[in-house]
Design goal:
Elements: H1 3-14, H2 29-36, E1 41-43, H3 49-59, E2 65-69, E3 82-87, E4 90-94, H4 107-127
Parallel strand pairs: 1-2, 2-4
Antiparallel strand pairs: 3-4
Length: about 130
């Protein structure tokens, strides 16, 4: 099962009448604009460092607000997982060191980073709201 399908299943368990559109394909340089053109905010949640870099590099010139993850592998040291604002439209969340290629992505640190990502996005959206 693809991650997007598992996510869809979980989200529908929470909110059965949720309207979702999933797209099962690898994100490549040529597909970034078509996939994200309607998005003001993007949460980067890719596994491969090269894919992360490509996605962020393609999104930043489009003036998207990007919240990316770097360094969430392993366990313990959860206080090292921090929010790092790098540019007006780029924030990194993580310890910036622990690569999941060498230490697996385990639920506690993944959950902490996901919560921090969500908090950064919520703050951005609410502070840029026109209502």
């Amino acid at each position: 099962m693809y991650k997007v399908e598992a996510l869809r299943r979980n989200l529908l368990r929470i909110t059965p009448d949720l309207e979702l559109e999933i797209d099962v394909r690898k994100i490549e340089k040529t597909s970034v604009y078509p996939l994200f053109s309607d998005c003001a905010v993007v949460a980067e949640c890719l596994d491969c460092a090269e894919d992360k870099s490509m996605l962020v590099s393609e999104l930043l010139p489009q003036k998207k607000f990007v919240v990316a993850v770097s360094g969430l592998g392993g366990y313990g040291s959860s206080d090292a997982l921090r929010v790092h604002p790098l540019k007006e439209n780029l924030v990194l969340v993580g310890d910036l060191q622990t690569d999941i290629a060498f230490r697996p992505a385990l639920a506690p640190r993944v959950a902490i980073v996901a919560a921090k990502q969500a908090d950064v996005i919520l703050e951005y959206v609410l502070s840029h709201s026109t209502t």
